[in-house]
Amino acid sequence: MSSLDEILNKIDEAKNIVILTHENPDGDAIGTSLALYMALKNLNKDVDLIIPKYSRVFNCLPGIENIKQEGKNEEYDLAISVDCAAINQLNGWANYFENAKYRIVIDHHSSNAMFGDLNYVDMSSPACSQVMYVLFKYYNWEITCDIGTCLMGGIITDTGGFQYSGVSKETFEIASNLLMQGVNISKLYKQLLSTYTKTSFELKKIAIDRLEFLENGKIAYTYITKKDEKKVNAEIGDYEGLVNEGRNIEGVEVSIFLHETDKGFKVSLRSNEYVNVSDVCLMFGGGGHIRAAGVTMQGTPKQIKDKLVKEIKRQL
Ligand code: AMP
Ligand code: MN
Ligand code: MN
Questions:
Q1: Kindly report the CA angle at 133 between 49 and 60, in degrees rounded to 5?
Q2: For ligand 1, is residue 131 a contact (CB within 6 Å)?
Q3: Is the pLDDT of residue 92 over 80?
Q4: Measured from the CB, is residue 258 less than 6 Å from ligand 1?
Q5: Cα 216 to averaged position of ligand 2 atoms, centre (Å)
Q6: CATH code at 235?
Q7: 154: helix, coil or strand?
Q8: Does the pLDDT value for residue 230 go beyond 90?
Q9: pLDDT for res 2
């Protein structure tokens, strides 16, 4: 793994920097990239943070107005990818990464393809925002209340509110430090985790109604199509979190959730105790973490379900 000093040297040398993250960005992707954006601005860098589409749930995060949909036409001196496991996950804006003079990857996915010139990937970290916090401390960059709010937003969303197994004593130490910095964790929790849009509630009803149990109740499976989304007038990100409905049912080890996109069905897998879903997704060209992973697949929901179940069964 590259050292934090090497990374800082490259940041120091660069004049203009582009920050990128994964498609369908979650709170960790947005929170980490906003915090980095603010830090680089404080260093007087010319920075573009490019995220074409994201859920309006994140509009509560400070600095969100700085996000651009498109970048410059010229080459950037430096591109930094955060919370992204593979270059194809940068989707339509991977070109900004590929065309930059130098590339850095900062992440926490166990399946990270190490696609940068420098890669700082801490797989033991439950959120990329936690990795970013470590960078801030190491570099002695000031963590303002706004920066802390973004980092905390990333941590609480990727840990499901401190509940997932990757949460460590460091996570709580960081939360405690950020609280002292004035970050309002309970407000963030309400905004990012416990409030959902009315249309996402409508989608949830459809997904729950359709949920099936397979393999003696060890697998829960459901899906959402474009037609469903049209029916309820769904917005970007409304399907986010639906995969947890299946995972939280007693006896379920793996929850499968499919969501139809222009490129096929986006598969989300979650496991509870022993199935490595990152390995299952890697089999089909995706990846992620041991307990949370994803991939895009072609076919009907039934065909995709059968392929996934066959692979998951090896580990049940
Ligand atoms: P999701 O189900 O989309 O919330 O994804 C779960 C985790 O797996 C997230 O950390 C994603 O970044 C990661 N992930 C999702 N899809 C892919 C993919 N195609 N390749 C690599 N990682 C992925
Ligand atoms: Mn993410
Ligand atoms: Mn993450």
A1: 50
A2: no
A3: no
A4: no
A5: 31
A6: 3.10.310.30
A7: helix
A8: yes
A9: 83
